[in-house]
Amino acid sequence: MEDQDAQTREAMDYWGYMFEENKCGTKKLNQLLSGIWDHISKNIDPAEYQDVNPTQLAAFYRAVGGDYDALFVETPPTSIAFIYKSIGCLHSLQPAPDDDGYGAPQIPALKKKGYITWQTIQLLLGPEEHVPFLQNAVDKFDIIDPETNRPFPKLLPREAFPDHPDPSMIEWYEDVANKLRAEAEQQGNERRNRTNVGTTSPTAEAPNGGSAHHRRNSSEESKDGSADERTGAAEYFRNPLYRNREGRPTVVHRYSK
């Protein structure tokens, strides 16, 4: 027991507490997440992408004891991109594996900075789940410190992270979920109303072909995301840890004030 305590103290001396008072990650946390991003991008298929795509993230979480297939496999790519944009995760859009060169890239792939933002937020939302993911990652893989080019220590103490979800982060997620659901419902109603109008009245021809209202509607929906994108994103924000799968309560209901 004393040896175990000594190892934990030694590990804490190395890692330190991983969050600043302003809830941003420390330099050490950013180095760790940078190393994990490098591992995912280089070692998890498909590795031909420059950035980390949803398939790779799903495989990574499975490898460290998680299951985020509901988000990274089952959620449409456009909704994932909308989620990334909503929480400020820097990402690129990559072509689908079967793209013939004529379609627009739609697969959202996290850049290193974007992954650091993503995982930092998840640690604040659900440390009891995401801290073990990181502990398993450093224990199972040789995660390389980008500053020293040497593997991080295998022991990552639980004490280096928050011991409970951050209330302000949960409240913000809940607010975003409510806003997105309301906006999706509004867009859906507007789309149905326009469809009903279109079936009873003639449509003006727009210059260069196509109807004026169709061209306008397409641009309106693409500007801030379609109703379908918002609906998919709202499902994530409502339950970002997917705790209600298999009957478990959601993070919002469990930890809200």
From TrEMBL:
Basic and acidic residues bias (residue ranges): 156-166, 184-193, 217-232
Boundaries of every DUF7514 domain copy: 16-176
Alphabetized InterPro entries for the sequence: DUF7514
Disordered: annotated span: 148-168, 184-257
Family matches, as PANTHER family: HYDROXYPROLINE-RICH GLYCOPROTEIN DZ-HRGP, HYDROXYPROLINE-RICH GLYCOPROTEIN DZ-HRGP-RELATED
Protein name, as recorded: DUF7514 domain-containing protein
Species of origin: Lineolata rhizophorae
